[in-house]
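Ticket #352: bound-state structure for 2-OXO-4-methylpentanoic acid.
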Amino acid sequence: MNISTLKVTDSRANQIDANNIQFGRTYSDHMLIADYEDGHWKQPQIVPYGDISMSPATSFIHYGQSIFEGIKAYKNAQGNISIFRPKDNWERFNVSAERMAMPHVPEDIFIDGMKHLITLDKDWVPTSDGCSLYIRPFMFATDEFIGVKPAEKFRFMIITSPAGAYYSKPTRIYVQKQYIRAFPGGIGFTKAAGNYGACMLPSLQTKQMGYDQILWVDGLEHKYVQEIGTMNVFFKLGDKVITPDLEAGTILAGVTRASVMELLRDKGITVEERPLSIDEIVAAHEKGELREAFGTGTAAVIAPIAELNYEGNMIHLPAEETWEVSSWLKKELADIRYGRKVDTKNWMYKIC
Ligand code: COI
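RESOLUTION: The complex was predicted; output attached.
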């Protein structure tokens, strides 16, 4: 695919303060844009990062046909840049696209476009441990029409942003039973904008109560754990690590989730993907078998949980020094990503 490129005259990369990177606040020099019209994708363009203008009638603003992905690029000690499992995100993006009646984005736009963009903005990939370049591909409906119907015109874009640690300390979690994130038959398995929009009010209320994130439960029985904030969730009960299964279509198939399960199984740890009720977690806690709990996601990577508030009862997780699984996973993933360990699984997609 031929990608037209208009470069900035002066890069802003030297303005990054490597010791103070705030997630999602600064964007690198360039962005990619590709438009879909009359049933096909036009030639993508890489242009200087900046505002885009659109009609107030642009359909995604009104009806939410809008999806995104989150991916990270890492720089190793030799200065080489690789992206973590981008093809898995590309596949998941197209799963989201299908559910939202949007066109597939072909590999030569999504993956090759990302490769071009990051090669151009390579000075934006931070070098320090725990830091990366967060890559945000997204697509939205661009019909200038406020009648309710699936759109025919779409725009795909990629922007990137240097990222440091998402959570600085273990999280305090509130188990939410009043609001529900996703239902069977809905869009819980997609990275559709509306999934995140619907969580803003509960998340605001949770923060006002002094908690970092919500532990969502299922919408039918209000007892099976689903996700934590915007992450997948894992509990270590006794010697087993348990994470909710994806059967009902209410949970995102996380790329970090899949990587974590593979690493744990390779290490000989039993991982179960199955319905996990909050009652089972409480019972394990009462028996002293709730050993660890953590969220996994692209942005936060591994986010250990310090405590859970379940209907006013506090469940305190054992002290950080005892966490074997989450600490090991954090290090193992970092070693693979920063090239300190041989990438036997071919997870790192080399860019330059
Ligand atoms: C992720 O961690 O995978 C996310 O998508 C988080 C993002 C919504 C900030």
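RESOLUTION NOTES: The chain has a mean pLDDT of 96.
TICKET STATUS: resolved
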